[in-house]
Amino acid sequence: MTRATLDKQPREVAAMFDAVAAKYDLTNDVLALGQNRRWRKAVARAVDARPGERVLDLAAGTGTSSLPFAAAGAYTVPCDFSTGMLNEGKRREPWLPFTAGDATRLPFRNDVFDKVTISFGLRNVQDTDAALRELLRVTRPGGRVVVCEFSHPTWAPFRTLYTEYLMRGLPPVAEKVSSSPDAYVYLAESIRAWPDQPALAALLQKAGWERVAWRDLTGGIVALHRGTKPAAG
């Protein structure tokens, strides 16, 4: 796997996720110290899926992130470019309509979804701008985007401690619990290289989203960005 930069090769990233699919959710629980469950609840509240709505869950992996939207009564489409992740998800939740798709060329018509969301996947896309524009394209006018992504802790001493954990603490833990420890070294480096909260907000606005705002979770380890597609006309 190539060392992390913001120049990512889609085939390599997909292969990396194929390799970790079987133990991906368990490994995330361990490495995030259980915080990922709180983050998923925050995403579900921000998306606010309603019965009869259509929700696109991009970079859905095994579909764990999609379950709250489906439970709320929304028709939920888990989409990912890793066939390994999709196959594992289909094995666990065969009733969900798992769909293979590249974030920069989504296989959906214009204005299809009421809500679109991506959790911990945007930084793994080769072209962030293209992905944000594609999400805008498939969202109906007035619809919502929710992006949950690792970010930059806002308190400097905590930021230093967190960076130390990413680069020194995370790899040995991943080696014990993951089916592909090298993938988590890449993930740690990709988190360090990712834009901070205001920079990601600017990218959303550049892509055409309006009313962009964000909320920090766990001191800024994660940021929840939101935006709205402009109304038609």
Write a concise keyword list for the protein shown above.
233 residues; alpha/beta; UbiE/COQ5_MeTrFase; EC 2.1.1.163; SAM-dependent_MTases_sf
Structure description:
- By secondary structure, this protein is of the alpha/beta class.
- Helix content is 45%, strand content 20%.
- It contains 9 helices and 7 strands, in the order H-H-H-E-H-E-H-E-E-H-E-H-H-H-E-E.
- It has a 7-stranded mixed sheet, sandwiched between helices.
- Helix 6 packs across helix 9 and helix 7 packs antiparallel against helix 8 (181-193).
- Residues 1-6 have low confidence and may be disordered.
- List the strand order in the largest sheet: 3-2-1-4-5-7-6
Q: Report the count of strand segments.
A: 7
Strand content: 15-25%
**Quaternary organisation of the protein chains:** single chain
Provide the residue-averaged pLDDT.
84
Largest sheet: 7 strands, mixed
- Total number of helical segments? 9
Question: What is the molecular shape?
Answer: globular
Helix content: 40-55%
Task: List low-confidence stretches.
Answer: 1-6
* Termini Cα gap: 46 Å
Structural class estimated from helices and strands: alpha/beta
SSE pattern, N- to C-terminal:
HHHEHEHEEHEHHHEE
GO molecular function: demethylmenaquinone methyltransferase activity
Keywords: Menaquinone biosynthesis, Methyltransferase, S-adenosyl-L-methionine, Transferase
Catalytic activity: a 2-demethylmenaquinol + S-adenosyl-L-methionine = a menaquinol + S-adenosyl-L-homocysteine + H(+)
Protein name: Demethylmenaquinone methyltransferase
